[in-house]
Amino acid sequence: MLKLENVKKVYDGVTILENISLEIEEGEIISILGPSGCGKTTLLNLILGIADADGGRILYNGEDITEVPMEKRGFNIVFQDYALFPNLTAHALAEPEYLPYCESLMAFCRENGIPCYNFQYVKADYMENLDAYYYDLYHLNGEGADKFSAFFARFFNAYVGGEDVDGWFYADSAEYLASVDRVTNAWLMRRGDQFVADCNRGTQVTPLYRFCLSTDGVRTLLRDYSEDNALPVSAVPAGSSVFVYAVPAGQPDAEPVFDMIWSSELGAYGT
Questions:
Q1: CA separation (Å) from 96 to 37, 91, 100, 109?
Q2: Sheet holding 183-191: strands in order across?
Q3: Can you point out the beta strands (E) in 12-163?
Q4: Average pLDDT, stretch 4-20?
Q5: Of the chain's two ends, which shows fewer C-beta atoms within 10 Å, N or C?
Q6: 99 & 164 share domain
């Protein structure tokens, strides 16, 4: 049985969790629900030993494990965050320390004999990962959640049944990204006197970019697909919005991903 008694956690002087008590019996399945930022992940990190509690006790089968290191708690971990490709590269770009953190965590688990499987590295033969499974950059939609839940049930049954599941996953981010043959999550930003486009993509993919204007609801082509991802700010007249579309080179039938900057936002750029 897992038991929490008046657990507390404080970050930077802000109390995230306080007086959290619960009991989970052996074989019981628990879901923890709540809005983003309410402390769900923090609570799990305390149970796992990833973070230290600032008060209260955590007991497992009657033993106080509050001060026991993560590697000695004997828990298996399945991380929900950054589950699949669009999330992985988005966070890798926004948070350069994220990928090294993932790799170091997996190395730590391997060195200490802790089973750890990174579901962002699952091979397409076992679970197909589609952009249609996401309703934004970070979250699975209903269809995606169903697909992931079905895959996880299949994985868990194979794992507890003694099947070798290591081959279901790429070894690391480099091997995984080398297998990705598409672009996703394009974006457009101002850098000096240029608008610069970029997108998430596999490491073997060359992206092509297409720029369009929208003025009074009429869309016109500024520049067709090319490897050039920069557009002079001066090319965008006042009152116009600018769009960028991205596709992988050599895939003429690929669905483009896009981003835009509204005309109201362009005003801040002095165009």
A1: 22, 8, 8, 21
A2: 183-191, 194-201, 230-232
A3: 14-24, 55-60, 63-64
A4: 91
A5: N
A6: yes
Rounded Cα distance between 221 and 223, Å, is 6
The set of residues, in sequence order, having a beta carbon less than 8 Å from that of 205 and lying 6+ positions away, is: 180, 181, 182, 183, 248, 249
- Asked whether the beta carbons of 197 and 226 are under 8 A apart, the reply is no
Across the range 158-180, mean pLDDT stands at 88
Single residue among 160, 179, 198 that ends a domain in this structure: 179
Does position 128 have pLDDT exceeding 80, yes or no?
A: no
Same domain (yes/no): 135, 213: no
Domain that holds residue 30: 1-75
Percent of the chain scored above 90 by pLDDT?
Answer: 31
Domain count, the chain: 3
pLDDT at 87: 43
Residue type, 271: T
Joined together, the tokens standing for residue 194 give 């240029």
